[in-house]
Amino acid sequence: MIGVIVVLALAAFVVFTTLSFILRKLLYVSAPNEALIFSGRPRRVGEREVGYRVVRGGRALRVPLFEVVDSVDLTNIAIDIQVRGAYSKGGIPLNVHGVANIKLPGEEPLLNNAIERFLGKPRDELMAIAKETLEGNLRGVLAQLTPEQVNQDKARFAHSLLEEAEHDLNRMGLVLDTLKIQNITDDVGYLNSIGRIQGAKVRMEAAIAEAKATADASVQQAMNWRASEVAKVDADLAIAGQEIQKRILDAQTRRAAMIAESEGQVAAQIAQVTAEIERQKVRALQVKRQLDADVVQLAEADRRAREEEARGHAARFVERGRAEAMALKSVFEAYAAAGEGAREVMMLQQVMPLLAQVAGAAHKLEIGKVTVLPGTPVAGDSFARAAIGANEQIKAATGVDLMAAAKRLEGSS
C-alpha cells in the first residue's frame, strides 16, 4: 500500500514537473517596455490579413510547432543629429546640432509598420535609419527658412522640423517623442554678422530708448509741473468757489431771515385784520340784534296790529256783506212772493230817492194826487211838466210807469 502511494506521488511529481517545464517553455510574459510578437498564425488587422499577433503588457501561450516568439524593445532611442553645410533659404550654409528621442510605437497600426520593417533588426541599424531620416528632414526644413528665422526662433524651427519628420517616421513605424535644437552655426560668419548687426541694432534701439526715456522724462516733468500749476489753479478755484458758496449761503440766510420777518409782519397784519373782522362780525351781530329789537320787532308788531285791524275791517265788511246778502235774499224771497207788483215796488224804492234830484227839489215830495194837465201851457205849470217829463224818462229807461204805480197804490190805500 505504501509503495503504491509512493509510486503515485512520484508520478504526480513527474507530471507536475513536466507540465511546469512545458508551461514555462510555452507561456510568455510581456514587460511594460516591450511587445511580444507571436508569428506563424494568420489574423485580420482591419481590412488586411497578417501572420502574427501582438501581446503588450500581458501574457500569452505559444502554440507549439505553429508559432515563434520575438521581442520588440519599446524604450526610447536617443539620436544625436548633426548637419553641416545645409543650405538655408537665401543660400547660406548652416551647421545644426540637435538631439531627438524616438521609439517604437506600442499601439496598432503604427506597431504593425514597425514590426514589418524592423522585426529582427539590431538597434544600431534602427538608430542609423532614424538618424538619416531626421537629418534629411532637417535639411528640408532649413531650405524653407532664412538664417535669421532659424537663429532667432529655434522653437518654431524645431516645431517645423517635428511636423516634417513625424510624417516620415510614422510611415516607418517610429514615433518621435522630442526634438531639440542645441546649436546653430555657419562657416562663413553670416550669423556673426547678423549678431553684430543685431548688436548694433540693439545699441541703436537702446540709444533711441534712452533718448525716448529722456524725452519722456522731460515731458513727464513738464506734465508734472503743469499738473502742479493746474492743481494750484484748481485749489484757488475751489477756495473761490467755497467763498462764493459761503456768500451765497449768507445771502440765502439773510434772505430767509428777511422773508421770515416779512412773513411774520404779514402774519401779524393778517391776525390783526382777522381780529378786526371778527370784531366787526360781533359788532354787526350786535347791530343786527339791536336793529331787530328796535326796528324789526316794532315793524313786526305794527304789521301784526295792522293785520289784526285789517282782519277787523274785513270781518266788518264780511258781516255787512253777509247781512246785505241776507237782506237781498229776503228781498228776493219777498219779491218772488209778491208777484208782479214786487217789481214796481222795488223800482219805486230805488227811484223815489232820485225824484228830488230829478225834480230839482231838495225837500221831500209827498204825492197826494197825480193830475194830468192839459197840453196847452199855462203859467205856473213848470213843475207839473217836469214831473211828467221825468215819469216819461223813467218809463222809457226802465219800463216802469210811475204814474200808474202811484194810482194803484192810491187805489189800494
Could you provide a short overview of the structure?
The protein has nine helices and eight strands. The chain is an alpha+beta fold and 413 residues long.
Helix-strand topology string: HEEEEEEEHHHHEHHHH
Q: What is the overall shape?
A: elongated
DSSP strand count: 8
Spatial strand arrangement across the major sheet: 3-2-5
State the end-to-end CA separation: 218 Å
Stretches where pLDDT falls below 50 for ≥5 residues?
Answer: none
CATH homologous superfamily assignment of the domain at 75-188: Band 7 domain
CATH class of the domain at 75-188: Alpha Beta
CATH topology of the domain at 75-188: Tetrahydropterin Synthase, Chain A
Helix content: 55-70%
Structural class: alpha+beta
Strand content: 15-25%
**Which sheet architecture does the biggest sheet show?**
3 strands, antiparallel
Averaged pLDDT? 76
Assembly category: single chain
How many helical stretches? 9
User: What is the CA-based Rg, rounded?
Assistant: 83 Å
CATH architecture descriptor of the domain at 75-188: 2-Layer Sandwich
